[in-house]
Design a protein that fits this description.
Radius of gyration: 30 Å
Distance between the termini: 66 Å
Number of helices: 20
Shape: globular
């Protein structure tokens, strides 16, 4: 019996030299791809892996046959462990999947449901050869990422959500007896035990020398080699994820793995893909799942019609990590042998990307399932090969959608822009003859109706951009609802998080209170549910915005409200707000007010080298003590650039593009994010927030002048893209004239800018001396947000203005203090900052 040395396949793939031209296994025949990426590849040595990657298709087939032929139990063991992983719906890159494949089921598993304190986390226990238990912590670093194995070098801080870490650190500094994690999560004691850390800092058990070793060094070791390192618990943690040294023993144990309960099987055909058209900078990707018969399906009655109910769970797997996860429901006429049906899924992907598509089709009534996986690459240009007429269904609803004429359907067309301001022309596509009236609703409230084609309406929106739900309902002549569709406008995109906006922090509440939350959603994700809890009792569950609920504040010494959002891939984020707290917990609701301050000398140059003692900060006239201080040369920056492309800018656009591109390439580093926006009659996003300065520069090429100037709308749209960003933020906006066409008012734009926390740097180009109104507004915009205004006569001077802005942004100071003062009734905190040398430029106030 040969011995195959242990290695972690996916980590080895990632560790290949960056300069090597590695093959792309995603595009191999499915059996060979699955052998490498879906489990068995974890059993290969590094040398075997390199050899396997270098072979052609025939060589790989022979290689797999030779490996599997060494032990008749090996193929059975691989199959059983694969089924074990599949039953848990885990991706190969997930540490839990690796553990199940390599070690089988754990002896004990504890799932910590403590979202107010911890990131998603599980504790798994395995028995070692000596009978002792090895406890492992597996956690999800952020929404959408696979679970990873926690190691001591990670520090315990990575296990906590940001707010819980702050609570704990404050409690430890003040030496409070009651730990907030114990209050919200009794299982936190188990986390202390496994990590060997009591709280954040007090180390109960030591793992010497761990800080000297990187993750890659640890995970690249074999189980045999790891035994030689005297690292105790850390060694055990890593060794348990290493491949077994004795493949024969592994095959014997794996072949004896009890299989998961068998389920009925659905019959599906070969999955096909095509890429028919561009969608912006992405290609529409259509996925066709043929259903040749109703085998395994069970029918149900719906409105007097016989239907089957199917669910498709899908994952686009990029290198073992989920790039996109989706869940679609279908309600349809049962397929038959003579009239086959196909399910159509549509995604939007960038050219050149490679994925493994993993699908699970499930009959909700019978429980029958079918799974399929397939690797593919998005081509550089559209390719259309699928049939034109395919029956599809609405995701998340029960309305049947089809492009076969004669069906009674309603489709609400989505807006062309991510940020919609003022009004929106809502248009529908209605098929069939049954629908005679379409009602349009905004956030659940009827606004307009149309009783004849075309079923379109101009929808009035909030004066400033916020998330709003637009729904269109189609009714027949008897007033019965036939079909409906809905879209979410102005949804905040970015890193997944929840922020409670009401009740405001530090404001005691009694009786009934309105709780509101904002949910920031990653690209290509959808919110499945938002839960409101009071003292951990669920009081509301919402599936669509607005995310708000009226809650009853309990008559208890300690009362809090928590809001948890769950995405369609199961990711969860939560925020907590105290409604009432005893004195010993009150200080944990103290607001940390963060200020990014520029200090300029008499010549307008940044003052360098100032210390915390050189600043005086007042809130509402009362001096405040700084709790944090830093010069922000190296702190991450989110930068927005908005350029006026109205017709009057025609002669300046070439120079404006050149200057802005040089500015970005000089200022933006890989740890920063930058987006670009052009505006004339309406704002248009050129590049969403990215960390690629070159891509941002390219987005500015070829700007064309047209239309009039919607400055206020551009300001609102630009600031909306900062909602999902934290830390230091700045917007540079270039214009050559007064606003002439915005739907928003100056008061709306200025108020929204004050609330944004974004420093704004307006550049007025070629404004005449008599244009006092536009100059005054640009000046006020800069002063209230802590930015700086520039007025230049010609485009050739833009480089100098951008240079001064860059120097200032890299020379600002980060000031933070803990405020226990109540905010104004509208939430505003008036702030004043003075410096001993020079003039401090900072926002006149903040909104918590």
């Amino acid at each position: 019996m040969g011995r195959i040395g242990p290695i972690l396949a996916l980590f080895a793939l990632l560790a290949l030299p960056a300069f090597a031209q590695a093959p792309n296994p995603t595009l191999w025949p499915e059996e060979q791809r699955a052998f490498l990426q879906d489990g068995p590849g974890l059993l290969l040595t590094a040398e075997q892996r390199e050899s396997f990657l270098a072979l052609d298709e025939a060589g790989r087939e022979a290689f797999v046959g030779e490996i599997l032929g060494r032990d008749p139990r090996l193929a059975e063991g691989i199959e059983r462990r694969r089924r074990l992983v599949a039953a848990e719906s885990l991706l190969p890159g997930d540490a839990r999947a690796e553990l199940l494949f390599l070690r089988g089921r754990p002896a004990r598993k504890l799932v910590l449901d403590c979202a107010a304190i911890f990131k998603p986390m599980e504790v798994w226990s395995y028995r070692g050869d000596d009978g002792t238990a090895r406890d492992l912590i597996l956690y999800r670093p952020s929404g959408g990422e696979p679970y990873v194995l926690w190691l001591p070098i990670d520090s315990k801080r990575v296990l906590y959500i940001d707010e819980a870490e702050y609570w704990l650190s404050q409690a430890e500094k003040s030496r409070m007896g009651k730990r907030i994690d114990r209050f919200f999560c009794p299982d936190s004691a188990q986390v202390d035990l496994v990590t060997g850390m009591d709280g954040l800092h007090r180390q109960a058990t030591g793992d010497a020398s761990i800080s000297l070793i990187s993750h890659w060094d640890l995970r690249g070791r074999s189980e045999e080699v790891l035994r030689d390192f005297p690292w105790g618990r850390a060694r055990d943690r890593v060794a348990i994820l290493a491949a077994p040294a004795d493949l024969g023993a592994w095959a014997q144990a794996a072949a004896a793995t009890p299989p998961p309960p068998a389920s009925a099987r659905l019959r599906i055909g070969e999955v096909s893909l095509d890429f028919p058209r561009w969608q912006g900078q992405r290609l529409e990707t259509r996925i066709l799942i043929p259903l040749p018969s109703a085998e395994g399906m069970q029918t149900t009655e719906f409105e007097g019609k016989t239907r089957v109910r199917l669910v498709v769970d899908g994952v686009l797997d990029a290198g073992g990590a989920p790039f996109e996860t989706f869940r679609l429901r279908y309600q349809m006429v049962p397929p038959s042998e003579g009239a086959p049906t196909a399910l159509l899924l549509e995604r939007s992907l960038r050219p050149g990307q490679s994925f493994v598509l993993r699908l699970r089709v499930h009959d909700e009534t019978s429980g029958a399932t079918a799974t399929v996986s397939r690797g593919f690459r998005v081509p550089p240009r559209p390719v259309s090969v699928l049939p034109a007429a395919v029956t599809t269904m609405a995701a998340g609803g029960e309305t049947v959608r089809t492009n076969v004429v004669g069906q009674d359907t309603l489709l609400l067309l989505p807006p062309p822009a991510e940020v919609v301001l003022g009004t929106w022309q809502a248009e529908t596509v209605v098929t069939g003859g049954r629908i005679v009236k379409v009602l349009f609703l905004v956030d659940g409230q009827p606004q307009l109706s149309r009783t004849k084609p075309p079923y379109a309406a101009e929808i009035r929106l909030s004066p400033t951009p916020r998330e709003q739900l637009i729904r269109a309902e189609g009714y027949d002549a008897d007033g019965a609802l036939v079909a409906w569709d809905q879209v979410v406008l102005n949804q905040a995109r970015g890193g997944f998080r929840v922020l409670i906006t009401d009740p405001r922090r530090g404001t005691p509440s009694t009786g009934k209170a309105l709780a509101r939350a904002e949910v920031v959603v990653p690209e290509e994700r959808k919110v499945a549910e938002v839960e409101f809890r009071v003292n951990d009792r669920k009081v509301a569950s919402l599936t669509q915005p607005p995310w708000q609920a009226e809650v009853q504040v309990p008559e208890e010494d300690l009362a809090w409200v928590s809001v948890a959002a769950i995405l369609d891939d199961g990711s969860r984020a939560e925020d907590t707000r105290f409604l009432r707290a005893p004195a010993n917990l009150g200080e944990m609701e103290v607001d940390l007010v963060e200020l990014y301050t520029a200090v300029l000398d008499g010549g307008g140059h940044p003052e360098q080298g100032l210390q915390a003692t050189d600043f005086e900060v007042r809130e509402g006239g009362k001096p405040q003590k700084l709790s944090r201080f830093e010069q922000v040369e190296n702190l991450p920056l989110t930068l927005g650039i908005a350029i006026d492309v109205s017709f009057s800018m025609a002669s300046s656009l070439t120079e404006a593009q050149r200057a802005a591109t040089g500015f970005v390439r000089h200022l933006v580093t890989p740890k920063d994010r930058c987006f670009t926006l052009a505006f004339s009659t309406r704002p248009s996003l050129l590049m969403p927030p990215v960390d690629d300065a070159e891509a941002v520069g390219l987005s500015l090429e070829g700007l064309k002048a047209y239309g009039r100037t919607a400055l206020y709308d551009a300001l609102l749209a630009s600031l909306y893209y900062f909602r999902a960003q934290r830390g230091q933020r700045a917007l540079v906006i270039l214009t050559d004239g007064a606003d002439t066409v915005s739907s928003a008012t100056w008061e709306d734009a200025l108020g929204y800018a004050k609330r944004s926390g974004v420093a704004i740097y307006p550049i007025g180009l070629g404004l005449k001396p008599g244009e006092r109104g536009p100059k005054a507004k640009l000046t006020e915009l800069a002063e209230v947000t802590g930015g700086r205004v520039f007025f230049i006569d010609k485009a050739e001077d833009l480089g100098s203005a951008y240079g001064q802005i860059a120097a200032e942004l890299r020379s600002r100071y980060y000031l933070a203090f803990q405020s226990d003062r109540p905010a104004d009734k509208d939430g505003f905190r008036e702030i004043e900052v003075r410096a001993r040398k020079g003039r401090a430029r900072v926002s006149r106030g903040v909104y918590p």
